[in-house]
Amino acid sequence: MTETDRASRPGGRSARVRADVLAAVAAELTEHGYDGLSIDGVAARSGVHRTTVYRRWKTVAGLLVDLLQTDDDWAPADTGSLEGDLIALNREVYDALTEQPSVTQAVIAASFRTPEAAEALTAFWADRYRRSAAVVERAIARGEVPVRTNAHEVVVAATGPLYHQLVLLKQPLTRAAADRYARLASGM
């Protein structure tokens, strides 16, 4: 195999190591919380030698940052309408917050424990809100909402109640209620 073949080969050893380590990070985080997350625990669970984990990620915060960046190709669904797009977005948020164990809730909790985790989560949210603005931009292009509609406000109006109910209040929320919040936000 030539150097060019190795460089262009997708899913090589490095990709497998990263996938194994990040799966272990998610599992350890949901089982033990941020305070119980350790490089040694991640290494043991992933089957990757601890020196490899230390060399590549250096700290627990580095592991968390990489975990938050694993879905680089994420984009909000395009259903053809603002209401449909917001419902699809809320269903993704709902699923992420209600899965058991919830990596999303564990990461949110970790953000209160360390500045590095808070910075990683802040960067993650900024990226997600930037990408989610596409649902409103498409609605503007279709003439569904006024040109001056604030995309961030619409997305927060749709998704915010889910975080409030499920994360802050720890109260149950149905998928139908998540859909209802999306419908309300689409009428802003």
Automatic annotation (TrEMBL):
Residues 15-75 form the HTH tetR-type domain. The keyword Transcription applies. It comes from the Bacteria. It holds the Pfam family TetR_N. InterPro entries: Homeodomain-like_sf, HTH-type_TetR-like_transc_reg, HTH_TetR, Tet_transcr_reg_TetR-rel_C_sf, TetR_C. Residues 38-57 bind DNA. GO terms for molecular function: DNA-binding transcription factor activity; transcription cis-regulatory region binding. Keywords: DNA-binding, Transcription, Transcription regulation. PROSITE patterns: HTH_TETR_2. SUPFAM superfamilies: Homeodomain-like, Tetracyclin repressor-like, C-terminal domain. PANTHER family: HTH-TYPE TRANSCRIPTIONAL REGULATOR RUTR (PTHR30055), TETR-FAMILY TRANSCRIPTIONAL REGULATOR (PTHR30055:SF148). This is TetR/AcrR family transcriptional regulator.
